[in-house]
Design brief:
CATH architecture of the largest domain: 2-Layer Sandwich
Helix content: 40-55%
CATH topology of the largest domain: S16 Ribosomal Protein, Chain: A
Distance between the termini: 89 Å
Number of strands: 5
Shape: elongated
Order of helices and strands: HHEEEEHEHHH
Radius of gyration: 24 Å
Number of domains: 2
Strand content: 15-25%
Amino acid sequence: MLDDMNPLKKFILSIEEICIILKGVVVVKLRLRRMGAIDKPFYRIVAVDSRKKRDGKYLESVGYYDPKTDPFTLKIDTEKSLKWLEVGAQPSETVRSLLMKAGVLEKWHATKFNTKSDKVAKKSKPEIIEEKQEIYEKENEAENIDEKVD
């Protein structure tokens, strides 16, 4: 009953609907939005229409970045950022490097290329180390058997 009373309810669109409507006309970008006081900046990572100002209205906040702390603070919502990348949002150079540091771009590339082809997913470092250890142990066992035979 409350939904019928709220006339603005029908104007609320999802992210996918916004991108379909604006496709070809507007490019959605992931970029930094400066906040904080003078000499104490921190930045929000936001999805924004490319025609908007740096600190103008944005579509959704994806995370934040504080370069003043030692080490710097970086918090990114992986699900939100992956959703925007899948829809076609273009990250700025700085945001791209921050997404790389957070590991979001690696996940996005893995999902993007695994759906298009049947390539094997990239193995993690512990898996590679375990495989090398097993190969090394097998070689040592083979050498020990050869020594016992002689």
